[in-house]
Design brief:
The protein is mainly α. Helix content is 56%, strand content 2%. Strand 1 and strand 2 form a beta hairpin.
Amino acid sequence: MKVDTFVQELESSVEFKLLDKVVKGEVSVEDACHEVVRMTFSIFAAAGKGHDWFGVGNSDYRISLSTLEFAERLEPSKQTKLVEFMLHLNKQAAIDPSTNILLRSQGSAFWADMPSFGYTELETWEHFGGDYHNGNLPNLQFQLQKMLICIDPCDPKMNADQRDRWTKLNAFDAQLTQAADVIYPPPEVYRYPKEGIKFPIHPLDKSLRAMQVMQMTLESDHAVGSLVDTAAMEATCLWFIYAADQLWANSVKDYTYPRSYSTGPGGKLWGVCRNKHWSGFTRDRWEVWEEVLEDASGTWGDERMMNMINEALESMRRAVRNKVKRL
């Protein structure tokens, strides 16, 4: 499917048009969520009459994709309605009145589990502002595209449009995370994982993306000065600007992930990460991030980026001064 066709099909969907009205303020967040629940019941009812059983999953998928598409288009300051929509939708429960059973898609509840948002957000984020549908391309073909069009967020020459989309997505993820009820599992969940026990993460908590961004920039084996004018550094700053309180709370709580989440030090050869054994958020790691970001503020770079770095540093310091969110 060509890119234009993919986007056009998404834009023509009922779900995209509904979100467009939310973003424009033509429909309230509450009314939009009620409409989504109504559509969910309608599709389930149609499926029960022999219609497409995957219809409700497809609708949920289009809601997630539409949300992410708007996130990549809107300036961070314009994403508020989108964040409110996701928070409100997450609190809705689609319970079949005839059976009193909570409706699900592949085992995930509507809408407490946000069934398709997890994997669509991950795939969108990992394509660094590129086309979501490329997730269906063979890996070799995607790697070839990466060589033809620079989509490396650590490269100052990254495609400008893709940089813009990816950094906006990070700002959206940060605002979602700041507003989410982050779950802090007991230590035994990640230290002594048992088969069949899933590591609990709130569906709107994207703290893991913040960790991945910090690994790219503030824990890199490369000199921080070479990363100042990159999408990765811009995303780093946006995370602190919009979610410093939550990231600091994570650090105070030692929010640790299982080894399979790859949350160890970003750089391993020398520098700030040498001899570190991190596996999640810690106060020590936060202090390293602040130190490296301070080093970045002392280098030469684009005026806009230097201002953003200083704003991120002030957000970090304010979060610490304000103590901890929800502790």
